[in-house]
Amino acid sequence: MKIADIEFPDKAVFLAPMEDVTDPSFRHMCKKFGADAVYTEFISSDGLIRDAAKSLAKLRIDDAERPVGIQIYGHLIEPMVEAAKIAEAAHPDMIDINFGCPMKKIAGRGAGSGMMRDVPLMVEMTRRIVEAVKLPVTVKTRLGWDDDNKNIEEIALRLQDAGIAALTIHGRTRAQLYKGEADWTLIGKVKNNPLIKIPIIGNGDVDSGEKAREMFDRYGVDGIMIGRATYGRPWIFREVKHFLQTGEALPQPTVAERVAIATEHLAKSIEIKGERVGILEMRRHLTNYFKGLPDFKETRMKLVTLNDPAELFATIASIADRWGDCDTSAAVPPPLSHDI
After folding, report:
1. CA distances from 287 to 227, 271, 290, 298, 321 (A)
2. Which of 75, 233, 259, 322 has the fewest CB atoms within 10 Å, counting from its CB?
3. What are the phi and psi torsion angles at 261 (to 5°)?
4. pLDDT score at 131
5. Tens digit of pLDDT for each residue in 229-257?
6. Are 48 and 83 in contact (CB under 8 A)?
7. How far apart are CA 326 and CA 170, in angstroms?
8. How far is it, in rounded angstroms, from Cα 227 to Cα 233?
9. Mean pLDDT of the chain
10. What are the tens digits of pLDDT across the range 167-176?
C-alpha cells in the first residue's frame, strides 16, 4: 500500500489519533510494537494560529515515529489552511483532517463529524488544504451524520476528487458516538467502488488479530486503524501482525513484561514532558497496564497519586514481585470514549 510516495506493508496497521492518549510517549510504545503509522492527538486550528501552548506542544514528533501524521480540526476554511501550513512546518509525513470526531463540543460547532452535514464546505476545505501544502493530505471521517444520512460513498468520491491521498472511515455515524457495533459494510462498498483509487483504511472495533484478519478478508480494505483497543495495550500491534502472518494468537504479556513496558513508557513520558507533567499524564495509562490483577486497589491508588518518580518506579517494579504468577490472559482494557 502507498499513501502518495510513502510505502507501507500489505495489510498495514495504524494507530488512531486519540485526544489525551496518542502523545509522543504512547506513540513511541506503539511504534515499538509494530504500528505501521501513528498520528498525533487532534489539534485545534484555532489553537495553532493563536500560538496556544497546548496546541503547539502537540506538534512535537520524533524521527523514530515515522511515518507520522499530524491531525488538525476546525470548522472554518482559512484557519484550517493556516493550521495545515503550521503543521507542515513541523515536518510530519502526512497532514490528516479530522472530519470524524463526534463529541458535542466539536461536532456541534461544525467541526469534526459536524462537517458531514455540509459536504460542499468539507470538500472545499479539503481542496484548499491540499493546494496549500506539499505533504500528502489524508482524511478520517465516519459513515455519516445519522442512520438517515449515511453519505460516505458520495463523500469518499468527492474527497478523492479534492486530492486526498488516503481515507480512513470509522464504521459508525456521528449519532452513534461509540455505541453499538461498528458497521463495516459501507467501508467495504467504498473500498470496492471501481472509481476509488486511493487507499481506504477501516476503523472501528478491531481489538484482536482475528478481527483484523476478518476485516481485511471480508471488506478488502488496504489498512486498518486501531483506536480504543490500544489503550493500556500498545502490544496489540504485535498481536495483530503475528496473527495476520501465522494465524496464531500470541499469549498476553506476563505481569513482568507489563512492568517492563509500563516502566519504559513512564520513563519516556518523563523524558519528553518533565517529571510533573510526565507523571500526571501517565496516570491514565498505568492502571490499565495492570487491569484484572486481584487485590490491586492499594497499588492502583499509588499509581494515580504518587508524584515522586523514584517512588513511582519502585511501586511499578514491586508489581512483578507480588503478582508475577497471576494469569493476565483475561485482562482487557476498558473502552475509551474519545477515540476520534
Report:
1. 18, 20, 6, 11, 17
2. 322
3. -70, -45
4. 98
5. 999 999 999 999 999 999 999 999 999 99
6. yes
7. 36
8. 11
9. 94
10. 999 999 999 9
The pLDDT, as a whole number, for residue 334 is: 46
Query: Is 0.90 topped by the overall pTM?
Result: yes
Half-sphere exposure of 249 (CA within 13 A, CB side): 9
Of 8, 13, 6, 59, residue with least CA distance to 33? 13
Measured torsion, CA atoms of residues 221, 212, 19, 17, in degrees rounded to the nearest 10: -40
Smallest CA-to-CA distance from 106 within 36, 17, 191 is with 17
pLDDT, tens digit (0-9, with 9 covering 90-100), for 262-284: 999 999 999 999 999 999 999 98
Alpha-carbon distances of 193 from 12, 116, 139, 187, rounded to whole Å: 20, 20, 18, 10
Q: What is the distance between the alpha carbons of residues 196 and 152, in angstroms, rounded to a whole number?
A: 12
Question: What phi, psi does 159 have (nearest 5°)?
Answer: -70, -35
| Per-residue pLDDT at 328 exceeds 90 | no
Whether 207 and 236 have beta carbons less than 8 Å apart is answered as yes
21-41 b/e with 16+ CB inside 10 Å = b?
Answer: bbbbbbbbbbbbbbbbbbbbb
Residues annotated as part of the active site: 101
Q: Grade residue 329 by pLDDT with cuts at 50, 70 and 90.
A: low
